[in-house]
Amino acid sequence: MGANPIMQDFLEKSGLFTSMATEEGVHHFIREINLERHDPFTVDIGEPEKQAITSYRPGFFEARATPSATDASPGFYLGRVLSEGPDEMLFEREFNLETDG
Predict the structure, then answer these.
(1) Which candidate, 76, 77, 81, places its Cα nearest to that of 91?
(2) Quick check: 45 and 52 in contact, CB under 8 A?
(3) Mode of pairing for the β-strands spanning 81-84 and 89-91
(4) Cβ-Cβ contacts under 8 Å for 64 (sequence gap 6 or more)
(5) CA dist 90 to 2, 20, 32, 69, 93, Å?
(6) What is the per-residue pLDDT for 57?
(7) What are the distances in angstroms from CA 55 to CA 43, 47, 83?
(8) Residue 74: C-alpha distances to residues 65, 78, 91, 95 (Å)
(9) What is the pLDDT of residues 22-77, one digit of tens each?
């Protein structure tokens, strides 16, 4: 995020982000795009980031119950669950003029 000196200085003084050298950031980026398998997302969070997020969203890092497929259905965008597996879920969605018009 802070490849130029002005941005690096601004981010360092803000205290919101953990400092990382540009070379280290490039290393992490190249390593991630060259992985054979890609996880849904990668997030590097240091103590400054945790504090910034927690001040904006108190309790964000507290453990949450994982919602089940039945918790997601029915909903406005999702209909009934047709099938579910460890990495995917198939919902039925019926469009009509009453709800979608």
Answers:
(1) 81
(2) no
(3) antiparallel
(4) none
(5) 41, 41, 29, 10, 10
(6) 84
(7) 18, 12, 39
(8) 19, 6, 9, 14
(9) 788 889 888 888 888 876 776 778 888 888 888 888 888 887 766 555 554 455 67
Please, which residues have CB within 8 angstroms of residue 18's CB and are 6 or more apart in sequence? 44, 45, 46, 47, 48, 49
Domain regions of the chain by residue span: 5-56, 69-100
In three-state form (DSSP H/G/I as H, E/B as E, the rest C), the secondary structure along the chain is CCCCHHHHHHHHHHCCCCCCCHHHHHHHHHHHHCCCCCCCCCCCCCHHHHHHHHHHCCCCCCCCCCCCHHHHCCCCCCCCEEEECCCCEEECCCCCHHHHC
